[in-house]
Amino acid sequence: MAAVRDRLRPDDLVQLSGYGLALPGNGPLLSGLTAALPAGSVLCLDPGPLVADIPESVLAPVLARTDWLSTNAREARIMTGHADPGTAAAALGQRVASGAGVLVRADKDGCWLAAPGEPPVHVPGFPVTAVDSNGAGDAHVGAFLALLGQGLDPLTASRGANAAAACAVTRRGPATAPDRTELAAFLAGDPLAERLA
After folding, report:
1. Count of structural domains within the chain
2. pLDDT of 177-192, one tens digit each?
3. Which residues pair with 122 in a beta bridge?
């Protein structure tokens, strides 16, 4: 882990999956790594479907360092007890580090965004005919971070992430996230497409 930590830079975006945190050997190591991230780096946690299996001793320090928490509605419900995604987003905002943001993905309904220090807002999805939802969450998180990294504000990045997830579910297989060109084509006519060009 020291080799990984030494290669991280202050402006890096770091994505952490709950799959690694749930493993008895990796969880404590990854949790410790988050505490050693350079100041200025951005940590995004997607706890994933194994969220209930992550020990609190591993999860709590990660949440304390998290800048963005991205969950689906089921994971948010497990973490908060709230079935409503907007209510769950607000509750998660209280659980993460001060100044952190929360996304609760709501499938075809888009997502709920609780930007740092702000109440949750609904960001509508894009209507498509879904053929396979496998990998949609990964497409959403990846697009959100990529768009944030390009300097877009969280609301605009959330819209782009919703579009990436919508595009992903129109294809079969887990690795179906669109690249920048495909995302711009999917959004043709939308003002966000111009920002991707």
Report:
1. 1
2. 999 899 999 998 888 8
3. 112
**Does residue 139 fall inside a structural domain?**
yes
Q: Catalytic residue at 138?
A: yes
How many CA atoms does the CB half-sphere of 142 hold within 13 Å? 15
Task: Please state, in angstroms and rounded to a whole number, the distance separating the CA atoms of residues 120 and 172.
Answer: 32
Domain-located, residue 112:
no
Question: What pTM was computed for the model?
Answer: 0.92
Closest CA to 55 of 83, 85, 27, 86: 27
Q: Let me know if residue 111 belongs to a domain.
A: no
Residues 175 and 114: their CA atoms lie apart, in Å, by 27
Of 154, 125, 177, 156, the C-alpha closest to 67 is 154
* 78, 49 contact by CB (below 8 A): no
Q: Amino acid identity of 75?
A: E
Considering the domain boundaries, does residue 170 fall inside one? yes
Per-residue pLDDT of 17-69, as tens digits, reads: 999 999 999 999 999 999 888 888 999 999 999 999 999 999 999 999 999 99
Rounded Cα gap, residues 150 and 41, in angstroms: 14
Domain extent for 166: 126-197
| Residue tagged active-site, from 138, 153, 179, 190 | 138
